[in-house]
Amino acid sequence: MSKFRKLFKNKARRNHYIVGMVILIATAFSFILFIQRFAYISMSKQYDGVNLEQRTKQKYENVDKVNAKRGDILDVNGDMIAGDSTIYNIYAIVSKKSKTMAGKPDYVVDREKTARILSKYLPLSAKQLRQYLSPKNKKQYQVEFGPSGRGLSIEIKRKIAAQKLPGIHFVELPSRSYPNGVFATNLVGFTQANNANDQNSNISGVMGIEKYFNKILAGRDGKKITKVDNSGNELPDSQVIEKSSADGSNVYLTLNSKIQQYTEILAQNIDEKYEPKDLQILVMNAKTGAIEAATQRPTFNPTTGKGLDTSWRDTLVEDQFEPGSVMKILTLSASIDSGNYNPDELYKSGTVEVGGRTIGDWNTAGWGYIPLSEAFTRSSNVGMVKLEEQMGAKTWMKYMKRFRIGDKTGIELPGEVAGNISYEHLSDQAMTSFGQSVNVNTIQMLQAFSAIANGGKMIKPQIIKKVVNPNTGKTTKTYKREVVGQPIKASTAKAVQKAMRKVVTENYGTGMVYNVPGVKVGVKTGTAQIASPAGGYLTGSNNYIFSVAGMIPYNDPNYIVYVTMKQPQKMTEAPERILSEVFNPLVKRLVNQGKSPTKATEAGSQYVSIPSLLDKSTNDSLARIKDLDLQSGVIGTGNKVVQQLPASGEKVMPDQRIVLLTNGAMTMPDLTGWSKNDVLKFAEITGKQVTTKGDGYVVKQSVKSGHVINGSGKIIVTLKNK
């Protein structure tokens, strides 16, 4: 028994020893691991993938972002096109737990009153607002008001804040202001916030000039770093570290606001009357290449985004098309310049066979045997084919390359396409002579036309005048006249100018409708077939791209005007008649701008120069308008004018209407008695979608006078002749 006890004791002692050794070894191993881990953390300052040094800094440092001001986009005279702005989102706290620092309710106390007051400033009814303010989830802390509660202007925000409604709050967000509404919108572009609900978010350009010059416009953000305690309170006498922000540069365009605004009105009128699938209007200074006006339809409102879904690109550079008969300007130039032009040679018009394909004139019966000198004036395709054959395919291609057809212009706009020339078959070679089987963009054609206007020297179209650093006021970059080649001789250019004049003056010319009394206009008309997705070309009287390119005046051009219109859906007039509704009044405006007529224009009337009413009181502005024997129209409930149409400096006939937009809620005016042109001004200055029915003067409107029109949808206006 004693033996057993002794054996048991020895085993127990041995077990204790083993356990003790295990514990000792485990402790030593753990200590070694701890030392290694501690050393690793001390040296690497990392724990579980977290940088401890940065984590400590974050805890005891407060970093505030200092947003740089985005640069402005201005017109050639420094008038604002796009500028930095602030918008506001409104929300309401509905939880009764919310209190102010003074212990007062910071939630919506009176839903009926709050809904009634907000309905005056938001495009929502009192009933809709009550529904928002009465959420089904009783535990909900706050509510928003959907799209109608976002993107409020500073004026609306101030008016609501002045009501001192408990529980009503605002979030301030960076934004972009486009005070002219629809104004070369696709060319200028627009911006989007990187985070639509973050007040520290930046905005970036996503189209046009805003996109192309985004880095220059955006500037550089700064930051401010302060030391704080555990509760986030700034420590007294702590050192403040600041990294200065650098505001974005201002970009001045070559656009002339007065011409641009008038162009927009003309474009809108054509868009509503004839509903083309695409419309482009461009005005370029023939001497410098400066684009003074450019617009397209469809377009969109950069403030509201309305229309963006059908107009998401700048068609001036991003779309390519077959130019049609305006290409004959280049064909005639090449024929004359290469020494192959014989104006007195007769040819048989009507149709011609080339490479197994029949090519016809627009008048397929032809005019019999006519001299080549009449081919351009009559816009004869067969005549152009004859010129191309006499030059030879190689010579004609050489001249197209001299005119840079198929090459990008390099204009400062994103997404420019190069176009292309189909030249494999004899029929394609022939068809390029009258603008088919060749694809271009609009700016390319303007550049080519400039050679005819400048004695053979081709000028690059410019949209940028200069870039200015707002911090120093110094111009950092200037864009000047740039000659990009001389495809033809000066004598050739003069001959083509005379040919363009004949298109207007000869009784067989295709451009007689573009004759503007008192102005020596030279033009070339165009009718281009549209390629069918199924092959070949579309058929039907409206399935064309109709165009006109004009020199004003023809013999020493100051301006080049180029208008294209694709597939008008309501072709109630001949296409050249439709285009003349843009071209002719635009030419008159270009010739008369800046002049002060001393003679009566009609019935002894004198032009009235429009004064600047911006930032003036509404009442003073109305009195001034009355003194000038002009009519007025006021949009909004404010006491200060923020926009006007026509713009200051423009000249109008007496009794014309000046439309004013005030800083108050955007309310509907009484349009009774307004002319169609007045209604277009209303649509332009508000950015609203307005549909007109009939002609004459307004007798009915779908939205009642005094109603807030933010988000009101389409406005229908009925007109009748007196």
From TrEMBL:
What GO biological process terms are annotated to this protein in UniProt?
cell division; cell wall organization; peptidoglycan biosynthetic process; regulation of cell shape; response to antibiotic
Offer an example of a GO molecular function term for this protein: penicillin binding
- Which SMART domains does the annotation name? PASTA
> Record's Pfam families?
PASTA, PBP_dimer, Transpeptidase
The keyword Zinc is annotated on this UniProt entry: no
Entry-linked InterPro entries: Beta-lactam/transpept, Beta-lactam/transpept-like, PASTA_dom, PBP_dimer, PBP_dimer_sf, PCN-bd_Tpept
Cross-referenced CDD domains: PASTA_Pbp2x-like_1 (cd06576), PASTA_Pbp2x-like_2 (cd06575)
Q: Which GO terms describe its cellular component?
A: plasma membrane
Compartmental location: Cell membrane
Membrane topology note: Single-pass membrane protein
Name the keywords, alphabetized: Antibiotic resistance, Cell cycle, Cell division, Cell membrane, Cell shape, Cell wall biogenesis/degradation, Membrane, Peptidoglycan synthesis, Repeat, Transmembrane, Transmembrane helix
* Main subcellular location: membrane
The transmembrane segments are 16-35
Ranges for domain PASTA: 604-664, 665-721
Q: Record keywords: Cell cycle included?
A: yes
Query: What is the top-level taxon of the source organism?
Result: Bacteria
- Function per UniProt: A transpeptidase that forms peptide cross-links between adjacent glycan strands in cell wall peptidoglycan (PG). Part of the divisome machinery that synthesizes the septal cross wall. Beta-lactams inactivate the PBPs by acylating an essential serine residue in the active site of these proteins.
Q: What protein family is recorded?
A: Belongs to the transpeptidase family.
Q: What is this protein called?
A: Penicillin-binding protein
Recorded source organism is Companilactobacillus zhachilii
Its organism's taxonomic lineage begins at: Bacteria, Bacillati, Bacillota, Bacilli, Lactobacillales
